[in-house]
Design goal:
Largest sheet: 5 strands, mixed
Shape: globular
Strand content: 15-25%
Structural class: alpha/beta
Radius of gyration: 18 Å
Helix content: 25-40%
Number of domains: 2
Number of helices: 9
Order of helices and strands: EHEHEEHHEHHHEHEHE
Number of strands: 8
Distance between the termini: 44 Å
Length: 239
């Protein structure tokens, strides 16, 4: 008897991943804010994983994410994870494509519909700082986090999606241009990696290098996500 498939995923992938899952597949969408505290990510996922009542194929909708997955124990389950350093590479289509963009366009900060919907972008973050702290502190915090970026890139998965997000994206772009001199660009991403991820439970024995597969009893390590000659993970959303 085949094992059931369940999904544990960052909420930033809800639109892209969720639309490709069978309607009856169990899914837990994890708080997007966990990526800001990677040391809490594995513990939060472990709690959800340990609560599953039977051995399952678990699609993990994360990249390595600041080493936030390191230490996650499979227990009685089989974990299937995109072999990427963070979710930007998932949107771009692979870790290799992300590295190519990094080499060609160092200093890029990425936006997607998921990040815009969650308010996880520089403008909303600055407004939150301004409410929590005095003006000088808010300016300092946002400058420290974003001043090294040179480009703001909106990733959509169709022209219609880009068009639908443009109003909100341009508000962020105007702020980033004024504060940091970032130029704005748009690109159409690919669902290739997500499509392959959804199909992986049925092809677990023919897994490619695009995925990390952790068998029952295994534990996630940093080395699982590194390819030959590859350095340590880059910072989130930077390319």
């Amino acid at each position: 008897m085949s094992q059931p498939t369940v999904v544990l995923s960052c909420n930033v992938l809800r639109h892209l991943l969720g639309s490709r899952l069978p309607a009856d597949m169990p899914v837990t969408w994890m708080d997007i804010a966990l990526h800001n505290t990677p040391q809490k990510l594995a513990a939060a996922l472990q709690q959800r994983l340990d609560a599953l009542p039977e051995p399952s194929m678990v699609i993990v909708g994360y990249g390595l994410c600041g080493s936030g997955l390191v230490g996650l124990k499979a227990g009685m389950h089989t974990l299937i994870i995109p072999r990427t350093h963070d979710c930007v590479a998932i949107f771009i289509g692979s870790q290799q494509r992300f590295v190519q963009r990094f080499v060609a366009n160092a200093g890029t900060y990425y936006l997607t519909k998921g990040w815009l919907d969650a308010g996880d972008e520089p403008l909303t973050e600055y407004l939150a700082y301004a409410q929590q702290y005095d003006q000088e502190t808010a300016d300092y915090l946002v400058e420290m986090k974003y001043r090294h970026y040179r480009t703001l890139c909106m990733v959509g998965f169709s022209q219609n999606e880009l068009d639908g997000c443009r109003t909100d994206a341009m508000k962020v772009a105007a702020f980033c241009k004024q504060r940091f001199g970032m130029e704005y660009e748009e690109t159409i991403g690919t669902s290739e990696l997500i499509d392959a991820l959804v199909a992986m439970p049925g092809h677990i024995d023919s897994a490619t290098e695009e995925f990390v597969v952790v068998r029952p009893g295994g534990e996630i390590t940093l080395e699982m996500f590194l390819r030959a000659g590859e350095g340590p993970p880059q910072g989130r959303k930077q390319a």
